[in-house]
Please model this.
Amino acid sequence: EIVAAIEAALGDGPLAGRRVLVTSGPTHEPIDPVRYIANRSSGAQGTAVARALAALGAQVVFITGPAEVPPPDGVELVRVESAAQMAAAVQEALPADAGVFAAAVADWRVASASDRKLKKTRDGMPALEFAENPDILKSVAQMDAGRPRLVVGFAAETDDVIAHATAKRARKGCDWILANDVSPDTGIMGGSENAVTLITDKGPETWPRMGKDAVAARLADRIAAALAE
Amino acid sequence: EIVAAIEAALGDGPLAGRRVLVTSGPTHEPIDPVRYIANRSSGAQGTAVARALAALGAQVVFITGPAEVPPPDGVELVRVESAAQMAAAVQEALPADAGVFAAAVADWRVASASDRKLKKTRDGMPALEFAENPDILKSVAQMDAGRPRLVVGFAAETDDVIAHATAKRARKGCDWILANDVSPDTGIMGGSENAVTLITDKGPETWPRMGKDAVAARLADRIAAALAE
Model:
């Protein structure tokens, strides 16, 4: 790790000269000035991936929602709140050699978000109208020009993990999906370990349960190998 | 817990021997295992109030949602997530001499909360059905027997602060409302200062803008004076 840090500082390392985009954390979608919809993501895995990529010498742009864990050192940091802000930040950060989309982006926003606090009424909760958020992973994976050579998505699933993640890879058009089982009884969401399956064009590859830092190091190595091909 | 009670009873201070309940922080209402609805509350003001009450010798039961700021020392700490859990914790913590309800409790929960991750469908967002949460402040303020002598509510408003808070005091049946203006341009939500108006049976009393610790100290002094009457 010290060697990696020195290599990164000297601009060596297998990812020296590569620009990699990493999204991380949850997004917050405002309902009104005091309420919002959030995703249960600590940002721990995305942060670890960004740190591991930087340690291999990559120039990392780290675009993060309001995460619990602090961002890594040695990256270009962009803080956002909502999915729309994250999508804009991603577009601004391109082009890149690779993109790792680890953020838990809200699929929907509240189209009727109010700039005044919504009040209880006799009829109950004011109706919320939802609108679909931009699909950041898909839009980057399916770019006509300027697509990163390697686009990696994440999938957080609670059941049929491999089937859902394999379908997601095809639907989004990304190269890899790193899928993890976030069922409440795994303790992964918010925990320090992860049990992941990497889905590539060769099919699913289940990794042993290991620390999020170890998952990140292994993924960074694989990204370096893929970009070296 | 017993030790704390004895210490509080033996302590000096104008609130020695008094048991005070304080709620604080946001609540999180689950939509599915990875999504929830939250309120923008750091827990800073409620935490400061609990600390100030303990400093005056009170035995404080501190019931907090997932707040950003750490809980104070020297209190009996109860951590909850949802409004329903907070309501149950409050009932369990009674009886008390006074209750300060500073938490930003969600008015609604998702009645159709799922234990599986909701999927995007061709028709868009799965319909969410909402149900009204228990009104913690009102239920304590309107207890037939065992009501705390002093029940203090908080109101976070973005417009017509005094009118809304005065109406809230009457509607809930509480003794006092501490109202604050959380319009985004005040910087109060998540900030270190607060600009409050205390609504009592004598009407509104607007305090100068001051630190949240100073607001808490002033409120604790007023609570001590009211319980000494």
Chain A touches chain B at residues 28, 31, 33-41, 104, 106-108, 115-117, 120, 124-125, 128, 130, 132, 156-159, 182-184, 189 (CB under 8 Å). DSSP finds six helices and 14 strands in chain A.
